[in-house]
Every structure is written in C-alpha cells, then in structure tokens.
C-alpha cells in the first residue's frame, strides 16, 4: 500500500497546473472530459473571437441557435423525444464552458432546455411532448418561459396573469417581464392563475403567433447585452383545453423548472470566473511594470491565488451536486447552496481579475468586466441572493422566513 501511494505521489509530482491545481480532471470520466473539451473547443473557435463585438453592439447572434443545436446543447440532459439524454454532470460541464464564453449565450441553452423543454418534458401530455420536444432539440423551434412579472419577481404567488375558462378553452390576460428569448420564441410556457380549486396556478403552452400575444425587447441593458430579454403581453389570448400542461398544478411546477436552471448556473458561474482568472493570469505574466512582470508582485499573486482557490472550491461544489443529481438525491436547498455561493464568488473573482488588467480591463478586448456585468443578472434571476439565503435558512432552522 505504501509503495502504491508513493508511486501515485510521484506520478502527480511535477509542475502544478495553474488552471486545475487540485487535479479535478481526475474526478471526471473520459466521456465527461470529451464532452467538456468538445464544447470548450466550440466556444474557443466560435464565441470568444466574436463575443466582444456582440456584447458591445447588444446583438444576439441568431445564427448561433442552429450551431448550438448541432452541438447537442438543447435539452441535453433530457431523455427521449429526440433529446440527447446526457448526464447531469455532462450538462453542467457544457454550461461551464458556454459561460466561459458568455453568460448570455449560456442562458439560451438554459431557457430552451432547462426551462421550456423541461416544463414540457416533466408536465406535458404525450401529444405535447411529441409536438414540441423533437423540433426544439433540433433548434427548429424556440421556447421561452413566462413566470416573472413586472410586479412579481421573487414572489411569483402574487402573479397577476390570469387564465379563465371560456367555453371549451381558456382566455389568457396579463404580462410577463425579463423573459429570455421571447421575441424569437415559437412557443411560450406561461404560468397563470386560474379559478381552479386547490392549486390555481397552471402552465399553458402558448404559440407566439396566437392572436393577442405580443413580445417586446427590453433594451438599454448594462448586462447580458448579447442575450435577448423581453416583456410578454397577453390580451384575450384564446387557448384550447389541450394547451394546458396536465401534470403541473401549483407553483411546484415552475419551481421544479427553476431548479433545473439554477443547477446549470452553479456550473456556468464558475466558467465565467475561470475565464476571467485565466485572462488575468495570462495578462499578469506578459504585462511589465517597474522592469518586471506584474505577476511577480506579491499583491498580484495574492489576487490570483484567492481567485484560483474559490474557482476550485466552486467547481468541486458543482461536481458534487452533479453527482447527486445523477444519483437522484439532489435536493432544492442544495442547489440554492451552489447558486448562492458560486455566483457570489464568481462576481468577486471577475471584479478582482479586472483590477489586474488595469485600465485595459474596461475594454471589450478583455472578458472580466463583461463577465462581471453579466453575472449581476445571473445573481438576480432564478432567485436572488436573498431568496436563496432564506431557502437555506429555512432548511437549517425549519422556520420559513418569507412572510
């Protein structure tokens, strides 16, 4: 046993990897590494050379939709109906690599797969699944997820959107805000209050060409500028009975979808943080002041060390949650742990990385400040810090503090 340990120690000896000091790759299977490296290569070749321009121009590159579909990114972790059926860890690794490119473009995968497709997959009828999931997996149809409203963000139970029975169908009225991909979507998964007894909140599949449906882009953003956020309006939208998602009753339906999206964020935030760290590390080794690379300065090294430590810790959290998700044992409050910690730390890392870049760090040539700006949105959507803190507080004490 001693000889075996010594042999492993020797094999692990040598120059440390500044991108993976703890050797976390050893915790991944060959298949997981292959998936990660494939998406990493795609991001390096297709997104990173262009994202500065897309962000500056506040332009979502619509052509990227089919390219993402070609990479098997839509509904990646869902089984059947033309979905790739990959593991939760593989999906997480893909989210990490996509967000190393840009949070807004990772959001496309989250909205399409973790929210819209997940809702249909979890709660839809067989007819609904067969109609929508195969073309959505191929990127032929785009979905959006309508839960948040202008006056109902952290408290969706106060939503004002209403679906009332009329004859053999429903009539939908109301509005939703901060809805990703709304102007590009073919179908909107919309959550509305009904007059149904017991669990009045129900989900509906609303084709976006329905009379009375309108989507408007939210512009002039300082964050997520390469993504599409919208406001949806429903004015007397008529829907047939079969538009309702039969398996979703009450807020447990949309919350289960939010947890799918939150899980992807746990990984994605560490991708943004890692990219910012790597940019700062490379810059510090090349940039000279006072006749020496700034990487040689004690204060710069402290910043780099602090960033690397939190990235490795956050990645371990994401991987642990992924293993639990694949085992079917992951709980919502554990996802809140990861979302709260990893996004909060990622913002701090990106801001610190910008300081190493000095004045050059405020240009689109470098990624840390763009990542930091994007993460302000990531920190807010799918549950604010305050919401996740209270979820965890309730888990610790058994006492809910929302009211």
From TrEMBL:
Keywords assigned by UniProt, alphabetized: FAD, Flavoprotein, Oxidoreductase, Transit peptide
Catalytic activity: glutaryl-CoA + oxidized [electron-transfer flavoprotein] + 2 H(+) = (2E)-butenoyl-CoA + reduced [electron-transfer flavoprotein] + CO2
Domain Acyl-CoA oxidase/dehydrogenase middle: 144-237
Iron keyword on record: no
GO molecular function terms listed in the Swiss-Prot or TrEMBL record: fatty-acyl-CoA binding; flavin adenine dinucleotide binding; glutaryl-CoA dehydrogenase activity
Positions of transmembrane segments: none
Catalytic EC class: oxidoreductase
Pfam family, one: Acyl-CoA_dh_1
Annotated pathway: Amino-acid metabolism; lysine degradation; Amino-acid metabolism; tryptophan metabolism
Biological-process GO terms, alphabetical: fatty acid beta-oxidation using acyl-CoA dehydrogenase; fatty-acyl-CoA biosynthetic process
EC number(s) on file: 1.3.8.6
Record InterPro entries: Acyl-CoA_DH_CS, Acyl-CoA_Oxase/DH_mid-dom, Acyl-CoA_Oxase/DH_mid-dom_sf, AcylCo_DH-like_C, AcylCo_DH/oxidase_C, AcylCoA_DH/ox_N, AcylCoA_DH/ox_N_sf, AcylCoA_DH/oxidase_NM_dom_sf
Domain of life where this protein originates: Bacteria
Annotated ranges, domain Acyl-CoA dehydrogenase/oxidase C-terminal: 250-396
Cofactors required: FAD
Family, similarity comment: Belongs to the acyl-CoA dehydrogenase family.
Protein name per the record: glutaryl-CoA dehydrogenase (ETF)
